[in-house]
């Protein structure tokens, strides 16, 4: 079965290549072969250097990961120690407006009459200048202060 085509087929391309090689002068053919060898040597050398770079990069990455993990473990340990030290402070609820859970639970167990407002005062920030809230809570603050001064009678 013959196929019709407008361009050269593989057989025609092979013949054209053979014709071109036979028509080339000897010096050009030698140069082409030398160039081909030189390019193959360069490719081999570049593959070797690329492999060396990959190995070096892999080694550097492993070392970096080890250092990073060590640093993270040190930071975690330091943060745990700092957290424990922070929550054991007597004024942990005032510093940074974070209440220590242990201190809060300890104080909440002490049920002495009249100590409710001290607990409220500990948990609330009554300083209007240090308040960094976006909402205006001055009215609520004034209500709590007035209730503390004159408690409701039952």
Descriptive notes:
This protein folds into 2 domains: 8-86; 89-147, no CATH class. It is built from 5 helices and no strands. It is mainly α and 154 residues long. 0% of the residues are buried.
Q: How many structural domains in the coordinates?
A: 2
The dominant shape is: rod-shaped
Largest sheet: none
Low-confidence stretches: none
GO biological process, one term: clathrin-dependent endocytosis
Membrane topology: Peripheral membrane protein
Protein name: Clathrin light chain
Pfam family, one: Clathrin_lg_ch
Task: Give a quick precis of the structure.
Clathrin is the major protein of the polyhedral coat of coated pits and vesicles. With 154 residues, the protein is mainly α. The chain is built from 5 helices and no strands.
Q: What are its keywords?
A:
single chain, 154 residues, mainly alpha
What order do the helices and strands come in, and which of them pair?
Layout: H1 10-23, H2 26-87, H3 101-109, H4 116-123, H5 138-149
Pfam family, one: Clathrin_lg_ch
Keywords: Coated pit, Coiled coil, Cytoplasmic vesicle, Membrane
Protein name: Clathrin light chain
């Amino acid at each position: 079965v013959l196929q019709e085509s407008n361009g050269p087929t593989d057989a025609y391309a092979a013949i054209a290549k053979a014709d071109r090689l036979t028509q080339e002068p000897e010096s050009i053919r030698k140069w082409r072969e030398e160039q081909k060898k030189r390019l193959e040597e360069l490719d081999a050398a570049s593959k070797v250097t690329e492999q060396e770079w990959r190995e070096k990069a892999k080694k550097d990455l492993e070392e970096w990961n080890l250092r990073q993990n060590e640093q993270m473990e040190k930071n975690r340990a330091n943060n745990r120690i700092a957290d424990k030290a922070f929550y054991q402070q007597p004024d942990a609820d005032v510093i940074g407006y974070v209440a220590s859970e242990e201190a809060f639970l300890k104080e909440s167990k002490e049920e002495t009459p009249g100590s409710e407002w001290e607990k409220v005062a500990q948990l609330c920030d009554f300083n209007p200048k240090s308040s960094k809230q976006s909402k205006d809570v001055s009215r609520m603050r004034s209500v709590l202060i007035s209730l503390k001064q004159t408690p409701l009678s039952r």
